Amino acid sequence: MVEPSPAKNLIPVFEELRSRGHEPLVYGHGKGAEVLRWEGVETRTLGRPRRRSRLAPALFALDLTRVLLRELLDGPDVALTSGNTGDARKTLLSSKILGVPSVHVEMDVYNPVEAIKLATIVAVPEQASDPGIEGPEVTTVAGPPIAAYVADRHLKGKIPGPVPEDVEGRVLVCLGGDVTEEQARRLLHTLEPLNPYVVPFRVDAPPRFDTPDGFIDLPGAMMKAETVVFSGGFGVTVEACLVAGKAVKVSGVHERHFSHEVAEMCGLEVLDVDSIEGPEDVLSGARKPDGGWLIRAGRDAVREITDIVEEIVQG
Hints:
This protein is of the alpha/beta class and 315 residues long. Helices cover 42% and strands 14% of the residues. Strand 3 (79-82), helix 4 and strand 4 form a beta-alpha-beta unit.
C-alpha cells in the first residue's frame, strides 16, 4: 500500500482480525506506510517503489522474487490487498503463483487494479450499480472500511497525524488524480482570490500557494477548513463526506467513477472542472455532506471482510 486510502481502508480490518486472535503481517511503503506508523503498525517492505524506466520490468522481477521468498518463509494463510497500487499488484501476482488465496478489497470499482483478475475473491461495496469486474469471485460488502477508520479517530477527536495550523477557516483544495496538471493550474488560478490552502497529491501547486511541508492528516485538515474542494478518488471522497463542514467535488478525468456516486449519495455536488468560470461557481456548489450512513456501512463491511478472511483460514 503506497497510498493513504488503501492503508486506512485495511486498518479497521487488521484491528478486527487481531481482536479475533489473528496476527496480520503488513507489507507496504510510501505514504500508506506512514499512516500505518501513526497507528503503531509495523510494516515490511515490498521491494522498491515503481519507477518509469527501461529497468522497470527487471526491478519488478527482482521485487517479485523477494516477495515470493518472503511469502514462502512466512507461509501466510491468505493475502489481503486493497487499492490500485504496485504493492497490491505484486501481492496478487505472488499469491497466485504460490497458490495462496487472496482477498482484494476494491472500492474504486470502475477503475480497478489491473491484477484484480488474479485475486481469489474481490470484495466490492454493495452501493456500486455495476462493478463490471470479471474473472474472480466477486462478493459485495456493506460499504467502505475507511469510514470506520475516520469514525473511530477523527469523529471522536483523535487526530492521528499532523494538521497544519494555517488551514483553519480557509478553503482547502485537495488536488488528486481526477484532474490533469493543466486543469489543476486553471482551477487554482480561478480560486486564487479565495487564498486557498492547497494539498497536492498527484499534481503540483505553484509556489505562491500555501501547501503542507510534508505528509499531513487530511481528514484532520478538512475538519479545520471552512470549505473543502476536492478532486480525489474514493478515499478522499469518503473522508470529505464524513468530516467536512462544506464540500464540493470537482472532476476532469473520470466521467464515471464510484466516488462521484458516493459524493452524490451524501448530498454533494460533482462539478465538471472545465465548467468552472469563477470562485462563486465552486462556493455556491459547496454543501454540508450527510455521510452518516457511510459509518454504519463501513463497520458492517469490516466484519464482513474479516468473516471472508476467516472462512479461508479455517477452510
